[in-house]
Specification:
Elements: H1 2-20, H2 24-35, H3 40-47, H4 53-92, H5 105-108, H6 113-127, E1 131-132, E2 138-140, H7 141-144, H8 155-159, E3 163-164, E4 181-183, H9 189-197, E5 202-211, E6 222-232, H10 237-252, E7 259-264, E8 269-280, E9 287-288, E10 293-303, H11 305-310, E11 319-326, H12 327-335, H13 348-354
Parallel strand pairs: 1-5
Antiparallel strand pairs: 2-4, 3-4, 5-6, 6-11, 7-8, 8-9, 8-10, 10-11
The chain binds 3,4-dihydroxyphenylalanine.
3,4-dihydroxyphenylalanine binds at residues 186, 188, 227, 266, 269, 299-301, 322-324.
Length: 370
């Protein structure tokens, strides 16, 4: 009789424990405590051995019944707990797909129009077989002026609004070599450096920063130029014209451009010319390749024999052509920025408006600006 009561008590206890188990771990502890090797129900089963056959006949089914019922209860509770855990997880990991997208890193940065324009220009000239050359921003008076056939005291030196560096103190008894340093006023000194270091044939474009003491809507003290130089035994002005017209068509992404070569003066070229490109200014923006107007776009010419000689080459053997243009200026023309000073203000809103998508490198086959 005692056993029967204790079995009922055991059933109540274990049932309550199962109900109170709040997670799988607690439930497993209840299972071990009841049905494990040393568990309370297992203990009852072991006691069957000590019973008389008659006692066993009633106690056996009762204990086994308890064991099976508890196992079934535990299994049911385990299923309930698993379902609850899954539901809790689903709630906590819920994603609201209607929320606005967060800007990824690709949307955050953008490429400055000067970098974009430079990439476009170099893509075009690389395709024509030009290499890229570079030189220092702080340049000697010799490379910036003298070697380029600017005579000492020539007014063209003044026209450049040069930033001169402080002259180096001269030691006593020593004569100044007159080689003052300047912030280069154009990329042309790299023509000299290239001819000094490279055997013709030379075909290079030279991008870089340049400096002049000037500031208004279309001038900033620091700006960018791109120089071109070709030196060979049979270079001529027809090639110069072809190169420039092909460049202008590719850069402005139009099928045809009309150009006008006007006589001009640069000390380092003879003859010297300025190139105008046909354009239409009737609307809000300047359209290249149509209309009745002209826009000055670059300077060029045949390299002066003095310049070739200054680089140690024989002008009776070698000749060539060169050109120079403002990168910022042609960026403004193509992309419609009205004020050059904004280029260097580091205004994030301006960059968001005029900047270009990163990793979208301009190529001739993939499209320059699209
Ligand atoms: N260096 C000139 C300037 O800054 C531009 C230029 C004109 C470069 C004619 C050239 C050239 O190579 O041939 O105004």
């Amino acid at each position: 009789m005692n056993d029967v009561i204790s079995l009922d008590t055991l059933r109540e206890q274990i049932t309550a424990d199962i109900e109170n188990a709040s997670d799988e771990k607690a439930l497993d502890a209840v299972r071990v405590a009841a049905l494990g090797k040393k568990g309370s129900v297992s203990g009852q089963l072991k006691s069957l051995g000590k019973m008389s056959p008659e006692e066993r006949q009633t106690a056996g089914p009762a204990i086994n019944g308890l064991k099976n019922d508890m196992a079934a209860l535990i299994e049911a509770k385990s299923a309930t707990l698993k379902k609850a855990a899954l539901e809790a997880r689903l709630t906590s990991e819920k994603v609201d797909v209607t929320l606005p997208l967060q800007a990824g890193p690709m949307q955050r940065g953008s490429i400055h129009p000067v970098s974009q324009t430079l990439d476009e220009i170099t893509a075009i000239f690389s395709d024509m077989g030009f290499a890229i050359a570079e030189g220092p921003d702080i340049e000697s008076d010799y490379y910036n002026f003298t070697a380029l056939n600017f005579p000492e005291g020539h007014p063209a030196r003044e026209m450049h609004d040069t930033f001169f560096m402080k002259a180096k103190p001269v030691a006593e008894g020593e004569e100044s070599n007159g080689n003052k340093m300047v912030l280069r006023t154009h990329t042309s000194p790299v023509q000299i450096r290239t001819m000094e270091n490279q055997e013709p044939p030379i075909r290079v474009v030279i991008p870089g920063r340049t400096y002049r003491c000037d500031s208004d809507q279309t001038h900033t003290p620091m700006f960018h130029q791109l120089e071109g130089l070709v030196i060979d035994k049979s270079s001529h002005i027809g090639q110069l014209r072809w190169v420039l017209e092909e460049f202008l068509k590719a850069y402005f992404e139009v099928d045809n451009v009309k150009t006008r070569f006007r006589p001009s003066f640069f000390p380092f070229t003879e003859p010297s010319m300025e190139v105008d490109v046909q354009c239409d200014r009737s609307g809000n923006e300047v359209k290249i390749g149509e209309g009745n107007d002209w826009l000055e776009i670059l300077g060029c010419g045949m390299v002066h024999p003095n310049v070739i000689r200054n680089c140690g080459l024989d002008p009776d053997i070698y000749q060539g052509f060169a050109w120079g243009m403002g990168i910022d200026r042609i960026a403004m023309l193509k992309y419609g920025m009205p004020d050059l000073r904004d280029f260097f203000d580091a205004d994030k809103r301006w960059m968001e408006h005029y900047g270009f998508r990163p990793l979208d490198l301009p190529t001739l086959f993939g499209g320059l600006s699209s």
